Amino acid sequence: MNGDVLEFEKPILQLEKKIEELEDFSKNSDIDLSKEINKLQDRLEKAKKDIFGNLSPWQRVQLARHPKRPYTLDYIQMLTSEFIELHGDGVFGDDKAMITGLAKLNGQRVVLIGHQKGRNTKENIMRNFGSAHPEGYRKAIRIMKLAEKYNLPIVVFIDTPGAYPGIGAEERGQANSIANNLREMTQLKVPIIIFIIGEGGSGGALGIGLGDKIYGLENSYYSVISPEGCAAILWRDRNNASDAAEVLKLTSQDLLELKIIDGIVKEPLGGAHKNPEEAMRSIKKIINRDLIELNKLPSNVLIKKRYEKFRKIGEFIENPYDFEEGKEE
C-alpha cells in the first residue's frame, strides 16, 4: 500500500486500482468492460464524496500534514512572478524553515513570508521540518518592517508543527522573538493577509500570524498545541490524539465559527495536493479581493481594525444566574 495513502483513503485507492486493472485488461483483450468500469467510477466518486465530506478533526489534521500537500514555495511559484528571496535576520543567521521575499502578484509588488517544510529527509533536515528558530522570526519581522518602509502589502503562509523547542533556540530567545513579532505586527501600517495552508501549531504559527485577514484552507488546522501533545497531557497517552483533536476545536470549520479566522479556502476533493492549481486560484482570488479593500484604508484605520479584531477573539457573554425568590443556588 502506498505510504502516502492515509488509512481512511484506502477504500478509494482500492477502487482506483480495480478500475486501472480493468482498463488494462480491456486494452489487452477483445473484451468490452466499459459498463463495469463506469459502475466502478460511479462508486469511486460516491466514495470520495462520502469520505471527504464527513472527515473527523483528526482526519483533517492528517490531511494538513500530507507529505504531498503544497508548501509555501509551491504557492509562491504558482501565485507570483519575479520572486526574490531575502535572507538573514541581521543578528545571528538565516533560517531555512522561514521563507521571506519580494514578488509581483497581478502586477503589484508584495512581500511574501511563510514556513517551509521539505519533501524528503535531506530537505526536512535543512528546513528543520518547518519549525523555525528565533532567527527565522527575527528575519520575518525584519522583512515585514521593510514592507512597511516601501508600503508593500504582506502575504503570509502558515505551515508549521510549532516553533523549534531546542536548547539552542531557547538560548537565542525563542519566546522573546515571537512576542516581539506579535507586538510589532499590531503596529505595521501595511495590509497583512494570512493563510493557514497546512499545520498551524502553537506560537510557531502565531509568530507570523497576526494580520488583517486570516484564512484557513479547508483541511488545515490552527491550535495552541498539537493533538498528540494535548493527548499526552490530558490522557497521558499520545494515542488519544483523535480525541484531543475533537475537543481542541482546531479545524477551519471550528475556527470560523469561533471567529478566529475570516473564511475557509475550499480545497479540491481529496485535499489541496490533488489539484494544487485549483487551491492556488482560490487563494489568488481572495488576495486580489482583499487587497482592493485593505489598500483603501488609511494606516491608522488599518491598525485600529486589526487591534479590534484580535481583542474580540475569545469574547463571550455570561448570563447572570436568575435566582428565584427563596431558591438557593
Q: If you compute it from the alpha carbons, what radius of gyration comes out, rounded to the nearest whole angstrom?
A: 23 Å
Q: CATH top level of the largest domain?
A: Alpha Beta
From the N-terminal CA to the C-terminal CA, the straight-line distance is: 59 Å
Total domain modules: 2
Give me the strand/helix succession. HHHHEEEHHEHHEHEEHHHEHH
Tally of individual helices: 14
The H-level CATH homologous superfamily of the largest domain, spelled out, is 2-enoyl-CoA Hydratase, Chain A, domain 1
Instruction: Classify the fold: give the CATH topology of the largest domain.
Output: 2-enoyl-CoA Hydratase, Chain A, domain 1
How much helix, percentage-wise, in residues? 40-55%
List unreliable stretches of 5+ residues. Answer: none
Mean pLDDT: 91
How does this structure look, described?
- By secondary structure, the chain is of the alpha/beta class.
- The protein has 2 domains: 7-54; 61-312, 2-enoyl-CoA Hydratase, Chain A, domain 1 (Alpha-Beta Complex).
- 47% of the residues lie in helices and 15% in strands.
- It has 14 helices and 8 strands.
- The chain has helices at residues 10-27, 34-52, 57-64, 72-79, 121-127, 134-149, 167-171, 174-186, 202-206, 227-234, 241-248, 252-257, 276-294, 299-312, and strands spanning 81-85, 98-105, 108-115, 154-160, 192-201, 213-217, 221-223, 263-265.
- Strands 1, 2, 3, 4, 5, 6, 7 and 8 form an 8-stranded mixed β-sheet that branches.
- It is globular, with a radius of gyration of 23 Å.
- The mean pLDDT is 91.
